[in-house]
Amino acid sequence: MSAYISTELNMVKELDPQRHELALQMAEFLEKGGTIEVLQGPSFMPPPVRHDPPPKAKAKPVQKVVADSPYMDKITQREIEREERVTAAAEARKKLALQVAKLAETMSYAQVMERTGLSRRMLYTMSLEYGFSYQPASYRANGNDNHGVIDDAYDARTAERIKAFKEVGLSRTQAMGQCGVTFATFNRILIKFDIDYPKRKAGPHPSFFAKPVKS
């Protein structure tokens, strides 16, 4: 602390000759009739506080939809077209179900599937929805004289369908579902027509394996 004060004093003493010379010049100037005017230094005045109004939120313009505007006309038209499509689809399904019900009076599941090309699940859903049933297959009918009799024509048609499903890569289970036959009937037709239908193996293997060429 003492070292700092001594340094300041030394600087003041160094300016003493200059102050003395300035004082002499001022005295000489006053003796000659001069005057010294002390000017007021600049004063700092802070700027006034600015009060800006709070920002106003921009309200989104509300789009008014007039009842007879083209926009409402398009919405109404789309709704009308949608209802028309739903009604047309329901009418077409009902018409198809009535045709299937007519066939079911004399045909089994497999025969109706072959005639219409519809899946067994769709035929079953239609029977529940419209309240009809299919005739049992001739070789399954209890008390029927044809019980146990195999229809060769039916087997031949089913064999052709099985071969087609094999070519597109369906599994055995999928092919049986499409044909509407049981596991026993499926295997019987495979053996009867010498169809090499591959079994699907576990893992990421293809469902179809080419038949090895006999040498």
List the helices and strands and how they pair.
Elements: H1 2-31, H2 70-104, H3 109-116, H4 120-130, H5 152-168, H6 172-179, H7 183-192
Using brief descriptors, characterize the structure shown:
215 residues, mainly alpha
Q: Summed up, what is this model?
A:
The protein is mainly alpha-helical and 215 residues long. It is built from 7 helices and no strands.
Task: Explain what this protein looks like in three dimensions.
There is one protein chain. The protein is 55% helix and 0% strand. It has 215 residues and is mostly helical. It is rod-shaped, with a radius of gyration of 53 Å.
| Number of DSSP strand runs | 0
The number of helices is 7
Task: Give the percentage of residues in beta strands.
Answer: under 5%
Structural class: mainly alpha
Biggest beta-sheet profile: none
Determine the mean pLDDT: 76
Q: Measured on Cα atoms, how large is the radius of gyration?
A: 53 Å
CA-CA gap between termini:
115 Å
State the shape.
rod-shaped
Low-confidence stretches: 140-145
Helical fraction: 55-70%
List SSEs in N-to-C order: HHHHHHH
